[in-house]
Amino acid sequence: MKADIITIGDELLIGQVVDTNSAWIGQELSKAGISVHRITSVSDKEDEILAVLKETTERSPIVLISGGLGPTKDDITKAALCRFFNTKLVFNSEVYSDVETFLKGRVHSINELNRTQAMVPESCTVIRNMVGTAPIMWFSTPKGVLVSMPGVPSEMKHAMSTEVLPRLIKAFPTEALIHRTIHVFDIPESILAEHISEWEESLPDCIRLAYLPSPGKIRLRLSAKGSERKQLEEAVDKAIDQLYPLIGDIIFGFDDQKPEEELIRLLKAKSATIACAESCSGGYLSHLFTSIPGASEVFNGSVVAYSNSVKAGVLGVDTGLIEQHGAVSREVVEAMAQGAIRITGSDYAISTSGIAGPTGGSDEKPVGTVWIAWASKDKVLSRRFLFGKGRERVIMRTADAGVIVMKQLLEKGEL
Fold first, then answer.
1. Are 10 and 74 in contact (CB under 8 A)?
2. What positions does the domain MoaB/Mog occupy (predicted)?
């Protein structure tokens, strides 16, 4: 079963607002076994909306619209729907009651603009919006259905989860569709593809493989579709088991797992604590930890030692090491990690020092050169990375590498 998603609003096309709605809708449809055929963003112009409605309803049995249902003049989705379905707006007293209830205590009085939200196309089935003022509108089309939902993300998600998706599943029985995502670290896409080519060719017909690269990481998504969910799950599990001997050492997670979450879980299981000493990553590594609820149980703190004086004065790095080897070196980054353990009393530490650019590089240490160290109280390991150009890219890849490698070291018992 296929679906089209339409998001409406000038703000989407000029980049003022990022369209997160269609991504979320696509994920939820996929879980239900419904494939998204196309996602279209269209401006607040009635003729353009009509053209997209015609195209999508002729192509897909399921068309989902988000946006353009507010009370102001630029919200013209209902007018376009009336023209498309050759119907008129009528007053819906139940919707008006919901609007009054929702706005009670939020505004001094209900005005005419608020009342317009109770005007709905006569030919639609109205689904109440219990967390906002714009109702959900369900239309029948020659191929299937068209559903118009609010553009406010929280309202759209509530409508999809509680009303729209259950109705779609009931109206359109689908094949089972499952996705598994394998997260791989520190390998170019072309080399990975070559390395697992025979495995890829051996995949059963029910499984499709997609490569989803991002800086320093690649997601391998396995999508399986068929009539029996259990058989699909077994086929995907078998494929992953066969992949492990090939690239198990660079796999760092599955599905929605975040490496920082998994690292925190490992540390909690060991009743251990960790700290950071950051130079080139500038606190971003610490941000990965503190973005996870419950991190305070294991994360003691961080020193952003951007200058050599802080490396020496706070972390206790020997100035002779800095003078002899430079701040971006194995010797200095290892001393930083050991210093972080000493001053925070942590069991483990991660430290970073590098050249994020765009200036500061040399032939020996080009922009993108980063040293990272991982330490326990009695052992320290380090590694040199070449992350290329792009300051933000280098910072993010440094933090990711720090977390991912620490997770791998703890899992293997190597630190």
1. yes
2. 4-171
